[in-house]
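Weekly puzzle thread! Below is a chain. First person to post its structure in token form gets bragging rights.
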Amino acid sequence: MNKVVHAALGVLAAGWWLAATSTTGAQAPNHPMHPRPGAPPAAAPTAPPPLPARANPAAATSAYANIPAKKNAAGEQFFIVASLDLQKSQLLLKYPTEVTLLVKAGPQTKFLDDAGKPMKLADLRSGDTVWVTSTGSGDNTTALNVRKGQMTVADLHRYYLDYEPIK
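Winning reply:
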């Protein structure tokens, strides 16, 4: 199930439970729950409305396949390393928008640290921020260069926000 749909169902369930229990006051343990004196009778809780059916379930997964490329002048995109698979030489990278991208690291992939010195895939950790140039798309994306580095506030506004920095 899609993470967004799962989270939405959790929020709906929590809201339904709060609405169903909001007319009762705090009670001592092992005592039956009774409405507060003078409170109007509670309406019977209703089930949340059903979610709309999707005509094409594959459309939801393919919506992320066409993410607009937000590249800097060097052709790099900013990511947060979500996880690494050293056995398969793969990185699961996360855009600042929480959308993920699985990238393969081939023998030609160059890794650089913050100071511009060479490093290896195994030197990266989850949570590191990186600038990546890649080739291919979808399941066939291969990293060409992976450079550790931070995103500045100016970069954040330039690539992800559609308003000027607040001063």
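Puzzle host: Confirmed. Bonus trivia for everyone else. Residues 3-21 form the longest helix (19 residues).
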